[in-house]
Amino acid sequence: MGASAEQVDATFDQIMANEFFNKDGQRWASIEHYVDDMQQLNQEIDSQVESFSNARNSAIEHTQVLSNATVTHDDLINAKLALKHATDANIQGLIRMDSQTLDNLQNAIDSTQAKLDNFAKSAKTAADNLEATLAKMQGDDSKARQLTQTKKLMDIETKLQQAKQRGNTEEIKQLERALELQKQINREEEKQARERERQSKQRSTNSTTNRSSSRTSTGSSNRNNSSPIDVTLVADAWDERIRQAEARGAENALKQLRYEAQRRAR
Question: Mapping DSSP to helix (H, G, I), strand (E, B) and coil, where does residue 226 land?
Fold first, then answer.
C-alpha cells in the first residue's frame, strides 16, 4: 500500500482516541452503538484503502505506459490525471502516496511531454521549410525571409531554454548574446530588403519615363526631317532616264547596221 509503520500506527491511534466517544463527542449509550459505529468506521477505512490502492496501481501502470515507444497524447493526458489522483489519495488524512511512486510518474510525464513537444516542433519545422520553399518559387521573397528568420530565432531560444535548465551560466550568457545578434541581423535584412525594393521601383519608374521620352523624341525628329517633294526635280530626273535609254537603243541599232553591212560585203 505504500504506508510506513509509523503512518499505520498514527492512524490507529487516531481511531482509538475516539474509542469511547461517538461522532458528536458523546459517550456511546450502549455497546451495540459502539459496535455499529466501529463497523461503519471500518467500512470507511476499507473504502479509503481500496481507493488508495487503486490510485497507486494506476500511477505505476501509467508510469509503465509512458515508457513505451508507441506512447500517445491520450496516454499523457491519462497519466496526468492518474498523478492527480495519486497525489490526492489518502487514508484518514495521514497515510499518503509514497514519494517514489509520485516521482516516477512525474518524471515519466515530463519525459513524454518533452518527446511529444519535439515531435511537434520537428513537424512544424518541416512544414515551415516547405512553405518557405514554395514562397521562393512563387517569388514571395518577403515571406520566405520571415519564415527563415523566425526559425533561426526559435532554434536559439530552444537552446537557451535548455541551457537554463542545465544552469550553465556561460552557455546562457553566450546564447543570450547570440539571440540579440540574430534579432539585429533580422532587422538589418528587413532594412536592406526595403532598400532593394525602393531601388527596384525607382529603376522601373525611370525606365518607363525614358521609353516614353524616346518615343516622343523619335516622332518629333521624323516630322522635323521630312520636307515637301519637288515635282519638277522628279520630272527632270525621269526625262533624263528616258533620254539615256533612247541613246542606248540608237547606239545598239547603229552597231547592228554596221555588222550587217560588213557581212554582206564579204
Answer: coil
Determine the distance from the C-alpha atom of residue 24 to the mean position of all C-alpha atoms in its chain, rounded to a whole number.
65
244-252 own/partner pairs: CB under 8 Å, 24+ apart: none
Residue 151 Cα distances to 37, 55, 114, 115, 227, angstroms: 67, 43, 19, 19, 71
**Closest Cα partner for 78 from 91, 61, 94?**
61
Q: How far apart are CA 31 and CA 36, in angstroms?
A: 9
Cβ-contact 85, 93 below 8 angstroms = no
Q: How far is CA 231 from the centre of its chain?
A: 81
Dihedral over alpha carbons 123, 129, 134, 137 (to 10 degrees): -160
Q: How many other β-carbons are positioned within 10 Å of the β-carbon of residue 126?
A: 10
The pTM of the full predicted model, rounded to 2 decimals, is: 0.50
* Residue 130 confidence (pLDDT): 84
What does the block give as the cell for 30?
Answer: 450502549
For residue 147, what are the contacts with CB-CB under 8 A and spacing of at least 6? 128, 131, 132, 135
d(CA 112, CA 79): 10
Q: What is the pLDDT of residues 206-253, one digit of tens each?
A: 777 766 666 655 555 555 555 555 556 656 666 677 667 666 666 665
Residue 13 CA: distances (Å) to CA of 4, 19, 53, 263: 14, 10, 22, 168
- pLDDT for residue 266: 57
42-86 residue pLDDT tens? 667 777 777 888 888 999 999 999 988 888 999 999 999 999 988
**Grid cell at residue 113:** 511531454
pLDDT of the residue at 110: 93
Give me the sign of the Cα torsion angle 38, 40, 43, 49: negative
